[in-house]
Amino acid sequence: MPPSRTRDAKVPCPHPGCQSIFLARDLPRHLRTHLSPEQRRAYEYECKACGHRSLQKVNVVQHIISKHVNDRFHECLYPGEPACNLTFTTSSIRTKHRNDAHPPDTEYPGWQSVLYLTLILLVIGDIIFVLVLVLVHILVLALAVLVFLVDIVLLVLLVLHFLLVLFLSSSCASLGTGSSCGAC
């Protein structure tokens, strides 16, 4: 098995009592959570400002940004009354705030118009789809009728040809000359 597939394979945690399943590449990091507090310290990252510790560096960086840096670039922008102008250090904290403080069922100004507009667009799309489908069926039906009419014309021409041959052969025989007229 190629190495990339081996790293993407799902494996269970071998620690007794742990029912977690991880990608093979994530298992070593998870196994550190089963270490004793003394053993974990060798693998933990630490915030130099307050001593907060985590097994993942990204968690400590996120902690520093949210607790010790005043850069708040992620604004809530809830348009309701009163307007919410809170700012957050990360977009994930802002999203959590929005879900907690302004749930989707809250009456946003224009919230229903967005839903109605979405519904109208979906209905218009369905109508266009049905119209195109009907048009295709009409074109196929028209083509079938045209093929049927061509078949009828060919059949009429064949019958006329047969009658003409029959008429000419009977007219030559009625002359009684016994000679061929050249058409027969």
Automatic annotation (TrEMBL):
GO terms for molecular function: zinc ion binding. The chain crosses the membrane at residues 114-140, 146-168. SMART domains: ZnF_C2H2 (SM00355). It comes from the Eukaryota. The keyword DNA damage does not apply. PROSITE patterns: ZINC_FINGER_C2H2_2. Residues 45-73 form the C2H2-type domain. Keywords: Membrane, Metal-binding, Transmembrane, Transmembrane helix, Zinc, Zinc-finger. This is C2H2-type domain-containing protein. It comes from Polyporus arcularius HHB13444.
